[in-house]
Amino acid sequence: MNVKVDTDGTVAHQDDAGDVLLSVRNLRKYFPIKDGVLQNVVGHVKAVDGVSFDIRRGETVGLVGESGCGKSTLSGCVSGLTDPTGGSVHFNTRGRGSAHGPLDEGDRIDRMDRATFAKYRRNVQMVFQDNFASLNPRQLVVDIVGRPLRVHGIASGTALQEKVVELLEQVGLGRQHLYRYPHQFSGGQRQRISIARALALDPELIVLDEPTSALDVSVQAQILNLLNDLQAERHLAYLFITHDLSVVRHMADRTITMYLGKVVEEGPTQDLFETPEHPYTKVLLAAKPDLDDDPDVPIQTLAGSIPDPARPPSGCRFHTRCPVATSTCGWEIDDIVRELETREDLFDKLVGVDRKSDLEATLTFSDSAAAHAVWEAIRSDSVPETMRDAIETLDVRDGALMVRFAKPSAIELREVGTGHRAACILAGE
Amino acid sequence: MSVTDPNAAPMRETAFSVRTRRWRELSATILSNPTTVIGLVIIVALLAMAVFAPWLASPNTPDPYQMPRDWGAVRMPPGTPGHVLGTTNQGGDVFYGVVWGSRTSLQLSIVVVSVTVCIGIAIGSIAGLVGGWVDEALMRIVDVFLSIPELIFALAVAAILGPSFSNIILSLCIVFWVKYARIMRAQIILVRQADYVKAATVIGDSKFNIFRRDILPNAVTPIAVQATLDMGNIVLVGATLSFIGLSESGIAEWGVLVSEGQAGIASGRWWASTFPGLMIFLWALAFNLVGDGLRDALDPRTEGR
């Protein structure tokens, strides 16, 4: 599926692979980091940083990634809970069975008029991870599930009650649960109540934010089956956010992998699981415990922790932890600093970093021996070889170390198969 | 329908019956605590005294809230015929003061607590919901208020307004809302991040409805507990202000009576101060007991689980 965003923001479809319901274009959400008495903004956490994807009618899109990669922020933007910093979310409010037309400026949820936005609201619902926190503890089930109907003036009185019973029956509950409080149910039942509430307005898209993560495995399966049945009955689209790859494989038609606020790979679920192209997806898949695994072989895991999203690595954001990184993956001054942080004796002597750019800087040390030791370390095997290869010039003079990295390759999502795209220079090779 | 099935709902179950049952359960929890019951009994007794004041001690004319003066029987000890609890230096009947003082104290507590709770909820909600510079400005005002001890602040305000009982009420209202504002703000900030608030937004409910149905009911519990405790504390502070002479003299009010009677304590005339003092003590104690019980019963860790 090729979708291009023109300069004026119009989304043009070159390929009518399906009936696009939701389009996310170059979406960014930055959270300011405030510091000091005056609460000056000293930086931004780039939770979501330029994400684009589409969801078609009746389709399940799985969104996977480590915690902290921006999945939940993205779900907030899609469901209109969070205002994005930049980019846009478009939603087709023309209703089921409407002729498929391209989503344009008029479909941007932040520019919709009141009536259109109300349609969007009705058509995008959400189910949350924490089944206890997502239900008001002081409301009865009949009020919780009936509330959307009341708010949108769809039903009231006895009709409302009957509609609620109908909804409860669809999720496997019944009339006897109408006058109970949320705390009188089990976790799985509470999640069913949440689903009933989400169904009340007969939406076209439900954002499922880790809907089964807090449940027992046996209950998880029941909820997943329920979601599958409801999708078949009502032609629902799901945005399924999770870190559980087995769940994604079971549920999703297409899968998107996110790392540090960016999409690193997307494609049909089967392709993505069978021929993952991005090293991060590969590592995620390898880290998934499987019943067939040899219990004596340790599970392959990812080295290091997720970098600070306030200063994400340049180039490919995964290059700092990538097992197959090359010299053109985006090595930069920050990587030297990160390496130094692991060497306390040398890091303590680092006095200043004078950056000319992300790729060029002069590091000043309190004594020339330290500078020399760092110079030696960078030239030796104690740093990743690919990082060493990326250094164009390395000079040491009187306690100052001058480093310049070669310009990295541009890294963008590119086609590696039908509808399968990955953001890695090695992809498709 | 089988009675033995615990999951089966009674056929005539309605929202009303479920809600009243919830209240019944809550009251049962509260009443299972003996100290709370003691507190409730004292409160009921004092309220009964306030209600039946005209029958317990026939009202003074023209103003029943002024102490009657029996100049023929000054400084009489308790047990004197016609003056069960004795009389004051000015011939005021101590029993009359105790009985009618319950009305003034009740008035003080109810007016001050309801006014301050309303102001506190309003200011705290605005600060917590609007945030930004509005929140900053309001909370700095709260900080200024909190930096001055309540009693001294109330004293200063009452002194500026001039000595009268209604000015004491006014000064307490001016001073005591800050605590509620602060509690409310913290609660609002906590509750507004709850997923059920997000869920209500996604449903499309209005901000006002979300505040009314989701945020407010889940935020006010600590306020209710604090207000109950303050019902007692306010009377203490009010009595203190009266005691140091910021109320009109001659009024049937416990603090004033303690104040006017204290001169006689050194000469052995203990009764003029002791009986009204005992009432203040009982009133404050009772509300503290009930407040503690309410806090335990409403504790989110135990409530409804």
From TrEMBL, chain A:
It is found in: Cell inner membrane. One of its GO terms (biological process) is transmembrane transport. GO terms for cellular component: plasma membrane. CDD domains: ABC_NikE_OppD_transporters. Gene3D superfamilies: P-loop containing nucleotide triphosphate hydrolases. GO terms for molecular function: ATP binding; ATP hydrolysis activity. PROSITE patterns: ABC_TRANSPORTER_1, ABC_TRANSPORTER_2. The keyword Magnesium does not apply. It is a peripheral membrane protein. Keywords: ATP-binding, Nucleotide-binding, Transport. Residues 22-285 form the ABC transporter domain. It comes from the Bacteria. Belongs to the ABC transporter superfamily. This is Oligopeptide transport ATP-binding protein OppF. It comes from Roseisalinus antarcticus.
From TrEMBL, chain B:
Residues 106-291 form the ABC transmembrane type-1 domain. InterPro entries: BP-dependent_transpt_permease (IPR050366), MetI-like (IPR000515), MetI-like_sf (IPR035906), OppC_N (IPR025966). Belongs to the binding-protein-dependent transport system permease family. One of its GO terms (biological process) is peptide transport. It comes from Roseisalinus antarcticus. It is a multi-pass membrane protein. It comes from the Bacteria. The lineage of its organism: Bacteria, Pseudomonadati, Pseudomonadota, Alphaproteobacteria, Rhodobacterales. The keyword Transferase does not apply. Keywords: Cell membrane, Membrane, Peptide transport, Protein transport, Transmembrane, Transmembrane helix, Transport. This is Putative D,D-dipeptide transport system permease protein DdpC. Its main location: membrane. Pfam families: BPD_transp_1 (PF00528), OppC_N (PF12911). The chain crosses the membrane at residues 37-57, 110-131, 151-178, 270-290. It is found in: Cell membrane. Gene3D superfamilies: MetI-like. One of its GO terms (cellular component) is plasma membrane.
